[in-house]
Amino acid sequence: MKRPTLLLFLSANHLHAQHMAGGRIEQQQDFTDTPDGLEAFASFLNTAKCPAYLLTDLIEEDFRHEIVPHLTGGSRTALLKRKFEQFYRGTPFHQATVLKRQKTGRRDVDMLFSALTNPSLITPWLNIILAGQIPLAGIYSVPQVSTPLAKDHPASHLLLISWEKSAGLRQTYFSNHHLQISRLTPVHSDLTFHDAVVKELSRTYQYLKSLSLLPAGQILDVRILCHAADRNELQNKLPVDDDMRYDFADIGDVGKHLGIDQRFTDSDASQIFLYQLVANRPKTNYANAEHTRYHTLWQLRLAFNVSAVVLLLVSASWAALNFWESAGKAAETGDLTFRAQRTAAEAQQIIRGLPATRAPAADMRASVSIMRKLRRYAPVPQTILEPISAVLDRFPKIELNELDWQGNATEAVASNTRADVPAQVITLNGTLQSFDKDYRAALAYLERFQLELGTRGYRVTTLRKPLDVGPNSSLTDQPGAREDTLDFSLKLVWRPPT
């Protein structure tokens, strides 16, 4: 967390925001879901233009365990789409996580489908984030980021209990270290943390038994993330039960392991999960490509800046190498230097004997032309890459995977461009996103992208098409046709205009 980062923690009617830099909290503020609170949040974002992570802790989070056939490509995408429409038609915030693949029979896949089922709790805050063009990396939940806290526990059936001050008591159940289900219970001000744990633990145990998630006769291990003072109270109040074993994780020790530079005074684990999110970001999240488009653009700009720095360093290294080679040959050229100096002295005597004259105009014109040509041999990276970035901003469904840039003097010369300088050749490898098998629309979208590049002065050549649409090709046999993404490769050639 060394670079500036914006961490957001969302509960039912409250959002906590903190701006991080160098692993420390630079600025933090809390907002309510009122018009004034939303307006204050928008003003806060004006001072924090950096990558953001949104962590949710909501009651309205649903989990469904399903065993599905092992599919790939378009078939797998279609299956997941049907499941989402079946389970979570009313919300865009859903995801599917692979738990494991079965080892017998058809070797089906155990998957966990989950969703934030009340989008109205998230949408107002998300709209403000997108309106401010904040690079949002993803939308996550506390149960997701709790998994690392259960990884080191040897139990096959573990219940992790934590408390977040603005949300409530969170109980997350893991089977063989895989998330299965999670419950959030609000804790009112008249109920202490340890009293809430004692009250809710027995209910959760019966709930797991009723869902057949806990096998008969199986001991349930309970890990409680808490402050040392609450641990002492819990040890005195938790009932002695042969069906449950208790384990306590000191919140201060967990915070030190995550590099949190603050002293914990109670069992509020909000900061634990925020830091855990950045340290061990899950592979999947509830955000879609539309929600994270500004983060994708931010990554692209960062890649362009790094490329420019690399080019500068390479140029400097080449110049240093030439200087070193020249210095190494200085001893061999001593005699030639002496002769050159003697010849120069004789030439000066001859020049001094000639009448004073001005340099011919033809020589001056030739010198200026040579200097201009030398400048064109090393164009500024920003001149070449900035138009590409502008075009990518206009085509959000194109994701840049790789960009290669080199000079080439053998490229054909286009009309209205200079033929006396090398061409700048850019190879752009990208992916077309979210077309849901509408390949005609995907190809038309890519064609408009290429035409837009052409209007910016690039000669565009297709190196690899996203689909082979020839008469002898089979759409179903193509890797790109079996997924909701299509890979392509373009060659862009640029020369300065005449």
TrEMBL record:
Domain of life of the native organism: Bacteria
Name listed for the protein in its UniProt record: Uncharacterized protein
